[in-house]
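Data deposition worksheet. Section B asks for the primary sequence of the deposited chain exactly as it was used as input, without tags or linkers unless they were present during the calculation. Section C holds the resulting structure in token form. Section D is free text for depositor observations; keep each observation to a single sentence. Incomplete worksheets are returned to the depositor.
Section A, Depositor: J.P.
Section B:
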Amino acid sequence: MQILEKMGIYKNIFENLPLAILIADTHTGNILDANDRACKLTGLEYKDIINLHQCQLHPPLENYETNEKYQIFVNQFISKNKKESFDHNLICSNNRSIPIKISPSLVNFDDESYIIYVLKDLRKIKIQENILSYYDKALKKTSSFISFIDSDYIYKSVNESYAKTFNQEKEYIIGKSMPEVLGEDYFYNVVKEKFDRALNGESLDYESYLEIEGQTHYFSVHFEPYYSIEDKIVGVVSNVYNKTKYKEFENENQKQEKLLIQQSKMAAMGEMLENIAHQWRQPLSMITTCSSGISLQKEFGTLTDDILTDSLKNITDTAIYLSQTIDDFKNFFERDKQKIKFNLNEKTDKTLNLIDMSFIENNIEVLKDYRNNIDLESYSNEFMQVLLNIINNAKDAILSNKSLKDKRKIIHISIYKKDENSIVEIKDNAGGIPSEILEKIFEPYFTTKHQTQGTGIGLFMTREIVVKHMKGKIEVDNVEYCVDEKNYKGAMFRIVI
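Section C:
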């Protein structure tokens, strides 16, 4: 390096500085020397940089493109002793523009004046600034509430969403303390303990709610410790997501679900009353027959002690049966408070016993295929409700199919174990569900029945119970199957628990 060689002691310093250095003649503007960093920055060989005019390496510097104008610049630089750094651009060997910071200095050596340009590559800084600008735009637009709060609980920065929640401008909140903004009770009872944990280095999440101008807001909050360049925690970055609309939607869904459950209970109760009528009709008829027979035989003088004893025994047994039926129906309507262990096969039989008279009257066969004896820990009454809903739907489908009027009517129930799952399958021979409505069958208020016969909530609640309460799954499909060497077609509901 020509000039640096003459400067002797400074040579090693200039060569090893992590910055590009150019030395230009104050009279001509030509570059007289450059270090390795300058060569790498410009993409030029050392021999190609020497004697170039400095304006050839960067766009016009304050429009001093010619030697004459360059001399004016130098005179001003010397007279004003101007040494401030400024941002500019450098044109490298492939004509690409590189952002740089130029720090000019005037030096005198051997009665000659030179300008030393120290060039700092700003590309990484500009990229970071660009990224930060996008982050800043994102922070302004995001619906999350972002704030930085120092270790004294003072707001140092907030985004617009945070300020809007409190119906304030950002400037109003910045500089205020958390107790002032959030309220002392809420801060000390809810926030402070968690904020202090973040100040101790813990990254944490929590959910809470706050009354703001008479309206309840629900929040999901994340606290992240903020470290200084000295690696000390100086505050906390708070990221708050407003869940109020989601919570309102969730509450509305819960109201709708409760309404559906209530409607389902009323529909089930109506069906149960019908089943009770079926179950009681024959026993009541037997009691009436026995009592009338006793009365007539007494009137004609043919009543013996044996006949009286047998008749009274029949009445007593029938009354016990009716009482047991009442208990069975009452137990069915009792809500399960906790999971219990029960036998899947026995519970299925018990469900069928509740409605067997209805099947007998309608000439419907219930075929059972219990391949395994399965014990299950779940909600037994809810399982019975699921079975009852599906079996009643199968019965209604069979009775509505006029082509089965004088033919065999079948409901086929299979229970078996597969891997770790307990499986119950209920099939009918009503011809199947039309493909265009098969996927809608579990939707609330969807029904294929006449509006006077169905509400469309039975199968919806069936799925809700299986999926949400029993943590299982329920599927429906149209299948063909064989019974007594004859093929039948119908819908199959599969419950997997």
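Section D:
DSSP finds 16 helices and 17 strands in the chain.
The two ends are 83 Å apart (CA to CA).
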